[in-house]
TrEMBL record:
SUPFAM superfamilies: P-loop containing nucleoside triphosphate hydrolases. This is Ras-domain-containing protein. It comes from Lactarius akahatsu. GO terms for molecular function: GTP binding; GTPase activity. The keyword Nucleus does not apply. It comes from the Eukaryota. Keywords: GTP-binding, Nucleotide-binding.
Length: 202
């Protein structure tokens, strides 16, 4: 009888994460900090058009994770097409800016609108970004945590500028996904933009 394969780093899993939130909450900055340990001032970051995708590999809970992250635009024109991005998604990160009440209120819209596209048991994390700007805060930590608990999501505050909470954000989501066997069986996906993207951006 051949030996049973142990759960080592030879085991790999393909995971797709979708990052949502309206423009300027710092979604792309969080990804840059997580993948490249870099931060750029807001004025130097190029706005996301449609969706940007990136690949990242890391070890999580004894598995080699091939991570595919979809960074979506927050542009109003593009909200109508993001439903097609949910296919094969195992985790969703919803981001708001703690210094902007408007971006926090928008999370309710994103959550209600998008929950119908995301089959359970997809893992959800709500992230209050820009926590370094405490003097400008409009949304308290307690308020963000309460909203997340009400919607059965994980919650964390982060700062792409200082790196606080960034690594934890992604690792906690990935660990939770790995703990759900049916989520880890999704095949590796490649990005294909919706056919109507070009028309919407005209």
């Amino acid at each position: 009888m051949p030996p049973m394969r142990s759960n080592t780093l030879n085991d790999s899993v393909n995971i797709k994460l979708l990052v949502l939130g309206i423009a300027s909450v710092g979604k792309s900055s969080l990804l840059l900090r997580f993948t490249d340990q870099q931060w750029l001032p807001e004025g130097e970051m190029n706005p996301t058009i449609g969706v940007d995708t990136l690949e990242h590999k890391l070890d999580v809970k004894g598995k080699r994770v091939n991570l595919n992250i979809w960074d979506t635009a927050g542009d109003e024109r593009l909200r109508a097409i993001t439903s097609s991005y949910y296919r094969g998604t195992q985790g969703i990160i919803l981001v708001y800016d703690v210094t902007s009440r408007e971006t926090f209120d928008a999370i309710s819209w994103w959550f209600a609108e998008r929950s119908k596209y995301a089959p359970e048991p997809v893992v959800k994390m709500i992230v209050g970004n820009k926590s370094d700007k405490s003097h400008m805060r409009q949304v308290s930590t307690a308020e963000g945590a309460a909203f997340a608990a009400q919607n059965k999501c994980m919650f964390i505050e982060s700062s792409a500028k200082t790196a606080v909470g960034v690594r934890e954000t992604f690792r906690k989501v990935l660990e939770r996904i790995i703990d759900v066997p049916e989520l880890c069986s999704t095949p590796k996906l490649t990005f294909k933009a919706p056919n109507d993207l070009a028309n919407i951006l005209k």
